[in-house]
Amino acid sequence: MSSEWQRLDPRAVPVSVILMLGVAVAAGVPSAIGLSDISVAVALGWVLPGAVVVVVIGTVAEWLRLRFSRYRVGPDRVELHTGMFIKNRRSLQRSRIRTVDVTANPLLRIFGLVSVRIGTGEHADKGTVRLSPVSRATGDQLRRTLLDRPAAAATAEGTLAVLDRGWIRYAPLSFVAPLLGFSAVGGALQVADWFGLSGNLVEWTIDRLSGLGLIGGLAVLVAAALVLGAVGALGLWVEMWWNYRLDREAGGTLRVRRGLLTTRSISVEEDKAQHSTLLPPAPGPLAHQVAADVVREPVSPTEAVHLSPHPVAARGRRLRWALGGVLLAELPLLLLGLLLTDVLLHLAWITALIAVPVAAALAVDAYRSLGHGLHGDYLVARSGSVRRSTVALQRRGIIGWTVRQSLFQRRADLATIRATTAAGSGAYAIRDVATGTGLDAADAATPGLLTPFLDFDESR
């Protein structure tokens, strides 16, 4: 593409007008309802001018942003200049670019626009340039141009995975589901409060559940919140992962396409790919197969490796953290129950009766999940319970190690060993491993890198 300076697409202005109108309506309706008790005319007199100001200011700000923004894709660098009073200059070397993320929300799609995020694989904001918006054709051209690399000979291009609608069954199992459910309950109370009906809603709920007793009523409320959360999680999954497809393109670039309303095309070099980017929650055998295909191995290192267990002291740490978390969650109920009502005291012991065995079981499961090992060119580490993570890190990509020991870890002769890398999240941990075992594993993974420090420690 041209190396001349170019401007962002001016169609961003009408997009901004529509967006600001939505913001004005969302903010103005509750305000108008709150003022309607005084007078409808007074409510409109306050709300309408404010809405006009919001739309005008937002539109002018967007026009000025476009007016003073320009970008250039040169043979060696991608540059973006922005700002009217405070000038901002961003520049990325093309050789360091690892990801190109092309996103289009419903408004941008209507106008044929996309937002392009160009990154170096680093998590710091300084390692990215965002061009928003540009035309859909420009976004696709940027994606292909910036990740143009010599073709890899080891593996041909092709499709690695496509959407299976049966995967939607995993959506309600996400930890997001209960959060969405209880958020929905809070949102309903907030909306009822706008209309002055929150008290009536609470009274109506109590009347309907009064015959079930305290425990039965709480169980029904929790079940209703979980059902709402499951429905919300299903909707969120469909929005995020509909039309999912994972392909390997020319030069070994991996491309993920997904999204129902907001579409997203993520192109990333294989060495920088992250599991959360490449595949939604899916059956274990398929996840291992995709991992093997991505790293160009016949069998995924996460599946083939034998993991060494960690000391029993690591189990004690997880039990203490889990039970301590339950205690912290129960303390407010206990204090408020002593100060306000016995109902909260009953709620405290009922929830503790459920939470303690659940927390203990999760802690034991988290301990059993701990493990690490070496498999060929890969260091593999596993941890977690509700959300268990198994990481296979190429040993040649490790550029450093961090050894962390808290006071309690030192007393138990445990340590958390982190492998530092330029890929993925930047660091991956072997958690609560015996100190000597962890250092030996790190030294075996990267021979010579830790040797001077180990020799120095032994000399002391």
Automatic annotation (TrEMBL):
<feature type="transmembrane region" description="Helical">
    <location>
        <begin position="346"/>
        <end position="364"/>
    </location>
</feature>
<dbReference type="Pfam" id="PF03703">
    <property type="entry name" value="bPH_2"/>
</dbReference>
<feature type="transmembrane region" description="Helical">
    <location>
        <begin position="321"/>
        <end position="340"/>
    </location>
</feature>
<feature type="transmembrane region" description="Helical">
    <location>
        <begin position="212"/>
        <end position="238"/>
    </location>
</feature>
<keyword id="KW-0812">Transmembrane</keyword>
<feature type="domain" description="YdbS-like PH">
    <location>
        <begin position="67"/>
        <end position="145"/>
    </location>
</feature>
<feature type="transmembrane region" description="Helical">
    <location>
        <begin position="12"/>
        <end position="33"/>
    </location>
</feature>
<keyword id="KW-1133">Transmembrane helix</keyword>
<feature type="domain" description="YdbS-like PH">
    <location>
        <begin position="374"/>
        <end position="434"/>
    </location>
</feature>
<feature type="transmembrane region" description="Helical">
    <location>
        <begin position="39"/>
        <end position="64"/>
    </location>
</feature>
<feature type="transmembrane region" description="Helical">
    <location>
        <begin position="170"/>
        <end position="192"/>
    </location>
</feature>
<protein>
    <submittedName>
        <fullName>PH domain-containing protein</fullName>
    </submittedName>
</protein>
<dbReference type="InterPro" id="IPR005182">
    <property type="entry name" value="YdbS-like_PH"/>
</dbReference>
<keyword id="KW-0472">Membrane</keyword>
